[in-house]
Design brief:
Blueprint: E1 4-5, E2 10-12, H1 14-17, H2 33-42, H3 48-51, H4 58-72, E3 75-77, E4 83-92, E5 95-107, E6 116-117, H5 124-137, E7 139-140, E8 144-148, H6 154-162, E9 169-172, E10 178-184, H7 187-196, E11 202-206, H8 208-223, E12 233-240, E13 247-249, E14 252-255, H9 262-269, E15 273-279, H10 284-293, E16 298-304, E17 307-313, H11 318-322, H12 328-331, H13 334-344, H14 351-356, E18 360-363, H15 366-374, E19 380-384, H16 389-397, E20 408-410, E21 420-421
Parallel strand pairs: 6-11, 8-12
Antiparallel strand pairs: 1-5, 2-3, 4-5, 4-10, 5-12, 7-21, 8-11, 9-10, 13-20, 14-18, 14-19, 15-17, 16-17, 16-19
Length: 423
């Protein structure tokens, strides 16, 4: 099953590089150019220069910068193999949560082996970008976020014990998320932790593009007779799937450049859903939460003027009749219900349209989705509940992948606390 090991992580020497809070950044794919420049204006050694390079030859520039920082001592490799206990603490809607996992090297496995399992589709353009960066730098700058099952939660208990002292690194980012890192170099502790994972499967939560890129990079090294074995591994953050601090948020859908009457949508969807009209868009999230807690498949269809229609699936077999080759787990996802019965059949937005975001845009913030309709930049919005973590496991275990943007794990892992050099 999953093979993990410690590694000599590459970390900033803050005595030379500066305050660690000004050296890290969020995942590269959510950073605008304006934000990128803001990070660099605070500290020219911010990890964004490596993770999201710019210029005429950005990948070559990233490789040169990495070498320069290592040679000058800005980045320093751990003296001994280590695993890293990583905790995030955050407050959302008045509730404070935290979760703790470990960062380690994980042996790369093809998905077909059923040891490391994906749950979402990927885009080739993003994989090409990450592959070019890996070839130029031979380094993982950010962790792939993966989950594991542990009935008695013994691994989390071990991590809590190892992370019970004062952290080696602690910072609070601009989103008021606190990040803590403990560096564990004790060989017996590392060996015991590695043994804990020997019977585990891993489920990728975030970082599908980077994982597939790591596989491509490994194969590239093998085909060209380069590498030292480190390319057989990738850096991951591993978290208990049932950790009480784990939080998945929904990703809403807004539609633009379409012409369809809301009453027509309601009429056509009536065969599948119980549909009711409501006023007060500010109540949508709480209404959907009630349905979520009740186990219903439901979403809201907002068309403006503070009014929305609540769709609650009444024909539970509707999706499986259409997607007869898909598992019950896949057919039961809220996003599968929305995409199959509404977006594709009623609006004519097929999977290719969704992937290219021709008429569909994915939005994480509820208020942003509502505002897009109110200001006329979108004709309507579909507000969803989050995907349940157990649904992710069930779909992955069935060997299937969810539609894009089915999950949004919050908060994102910070980039730059530790790096995995593959040379």
């Amino acid at each position: 099953m999953a093979e993990i090991k410690g590694f000599k992580g590459l970390r900033f020497d803050c005595g030379k590089a500066g305050d660690i809070a000004k050296l890290v950044c969020p995942p590269y794919d959510i950073i605008s150019e304006e934000k990128r420049q803001a990070y660099l204006s605070e500290n020219q050694h911010n990890i964004i220069r490596l993770e999201l390079p710019k210029g005429n030859d950005p990948y070559l520039e990233a490789g040169r910068t990495l070498k320069q920082w290592i040679d000058s001592g800005i980045l320093k490799k751990e003296d001994k193999d280590a695993v890293y206990i990583y905790e995030e603490e955050f407050t959302l809607k008045g509730i404070t949560r935290s979760f703790k996992g470990c960062i380690a090297r994980v042996r790369l496995e093809e998905f077909s082996k059923g040891i490391i399992l994906p749950h979402e589709e990927t885009l080739s353009k993003a994989k090409e970008d990450r592959f070019n960066l890996m070839k130029a730098t031979n380094c993982n700058f950010s962790q792939i976020y993966s989950l594991f099952t542990d009935e008695n939660h013994n691994i989390t208990k071990r991590l809590d014990r190892l992370g019970s002292t004062k952290p080696d690194i602690e910072l609070t980012d601009c989103d008021n998320v606190t990040h803590r890192l403990w560096i564990v170099t004790d060989e017996k502790e590392i060996s015991a932790l590695c043994s804990d994972f020997s019977s585990k499967k891993l489920y990728i939560a975030d970082g599908h593009h980077r994982y597939e890129t790591a596989l491509n990079y490994r194969n590239y090294c093998r085909e060209n007779g380069i590498g030292n074995g480190a390319e057989d591994y990738v850096m991951m953050m591993l978290v208990d799937m049932e950790h009480p601090g784990l939080l998945v948020l929904p990703t809403h859908r807004i539609l633009r450049n379409i012409s369809i009457d809301p009453d027509e949508v309601t009429d056509k969807c009536g065969q599948y859903f119980e549909i009711t009209e409501h006023s007060g868009a500010e109540n949508i999230e709480s209404v959907l939460k009630e349905r979520y807690d009740n186990g219903d498949k439901a979403f809201a269809y907002y068309t403006g003027n503070d009014k929305y229609r609540l769709f609650v699936l009444s024909d539970k077999s509707a999706v499986s009749k259409i997607l007869s080759d898909k598992s019950s787990a896949y057919c039961g996802l809220d996003v599968s219900v929305l995409h199959t019965l509404v977006l594709e059949r009623i609006f004519g937005i097929d999977s290719d349209n969704m992937a290219k975001q021709i008429n569909l845009t994915y939005v994480k913030e509820f208020k942003e989705a509502i505002s897009a309709v109110n200001n006329g930049s979108a004709q309507c919005a579909f507000i969803l509940n989050p995907t349940k973590v157990e649904e992710i496991k069930e779909v992955a275990a069935a060997g299937e992948k969810m539609p894009q943007k089915s999950t949004y794990f919050y908060p994102k892992l910070i980039t730059g606390l530790v790096m995995n050099e593959l040379v």
